């Protein structure tokens, strides 16, 4: 996998462009913070949450376009 070099540029670019159905809300952040042992765990859990939300968004888009059956 390619390394992202401009991490914060990518983060800033996403602001206002994430479908609200798949964005992170304050309750999600609170849940992730409460379940995380330390700062490293917090970042990893946040990433995993975002990844899974992205997967849901991708599946919904594929289903809308007829690429998925079911």
Describe the protein in words.
This protein is mainly alpha-helical and 70 residues long. It has a domain at 20-64. It has three helices and no strands. It has helices at 7-14, 26-35, 39-64. The termini are far apart. The model has no long low-confidence stretch (mean pLDDT 91).
Strand and helix layout:
Layout: H1 7-14, H2 26-35, H3 39-64
Quick synopsis:
This protein has 70 residues and is an all-alpha fold. It contains three helices and no strands.
Tell me what portion of residues adopts beta-strand conformation: under 5%
Q: Which residues form runs of ≥5 with pLDDT under 50?
A: none
Overall 3D geometry? globular
Q: If helices are DSSP runs of H or I spanning 4 or more residues, what is the number of helices?
A: 3
Distance from first to last alpha carbon: 30 Å
Order of helices and strands: HHH
Q: Class by helix and strand content?
A: mainly alpha
